[in-house]
Request: fold
Amino acid sequence: GKQQPLFLSLTAVQWLVLQVWISNGGIADIFTVFARTEVVDKDGTTKDKITAFVVEREFGGITSGKPEDKLGIRGSNTCEVHFENTKVPVANVLGEVGGGFKVAMRILNSGRFSMGSASAGMIKKLIEMTAEYACTRKQFDRKLSEFGLIQEKFTLMAMQAYVMESMAYLTAGMMDRPGEPDCSVEAAMVKVYSSEGAWVCISEALQILGGLGYMKDYPYERFLRDSRILLIFEGTNEILRLYVALTGLQHAGKILTGKIKQMKKGNIGVALEMLGKRLGSSFGRTVDYGLTGKNGVVHPSLEESAKKMEENVYNLGNTVESLLYRYGKTIVEEQLVVKRVADVLINLYAMTAVIARASRSISIGLRNHDHEVLLANTFCSGVYFQNNFLLAQLQKNSSENLDENIKKIAQQVLDKRAYICSHPLDRTF
Reply:
């Protein structure tokens, strides 16, 4: 057989050098590098596939650009890294040649789900710092903590921390199961939810402090700057929403393909079944997936929340069926539709996590379990209405859906690359 080369050459491939922000790029001695390599497939064709390498600076030909000056996470060294004919021993391939995508996904997954625990930890710290201030600062002869608008902010922070933490631990538990289960969708959902939740919570915490929060003498403005990156790195939230929803839609599509083909052919039985489902749900039929009742897995104190979730799940199933019927494969291009499906899915995963956690806490009698149940029920009620609105927007000819207007406005702005309204004091005479 052909002898394996001892070294592979890593040259400055365009995508590796241009616009790549490498964390610790200026100080690291060891890099994980993903590069396109030619791989001969089973059928003898040559394809470009991604391979992961462990590359050491001393292999030569590695230079770093100047550190980037960033808005936040300024303690992290970020710069471009260039490779010029760097020789890498074959022994330094991570995984197998052409199997780099899997390696990248695994690394990203661990980063994504841990964002839930990191964000929750950050918010818990913020709650302590701001609560101290709110309970001692007096305004109009009353403590800040006595004002309803300030209390609302603390509830938001406590609820978000609880949801993020619950999602992160549920996902960690799945990832710990034997057989390396694929939790990439769950990890992506945790990442989207916690990055956006953290940003809102920090903004609210800063608001509690008023002018002080804006000052460099206090740490709040740094929290704000540092947390903005969470929505961007480890996969932007836009891309991850598409990933979450399209993975789910692809799965549903495989199951529903036969049914949809039958309907397109005009099979009356299948069409009537769909219609029956529609009418059933519009007459408020009760959905039962076994979460509540005699053999239910959910504690009675969370029964209402569980029922709301079951109803949302059932309606999502119906909605997905009609979306696949309406768009077929072109749903990939309907990003505003896909985003809503993702938001419902993320909300449902969050509901699952908090109901399961609060249910366990009250069942085994953890300290403050009544607080957990209150948080879970409050969260589920709010998110239930949010899901209903999103699902309403996804119905055909929905008056709540403004997607056509959204696309039109964007088109008109982007055509001129500017805000195109006349000045309010302009005259036509």
Remarks:
- The chain has eleven helices and eleven strands.
- The first strand starts at residue 7 and ends at 10.
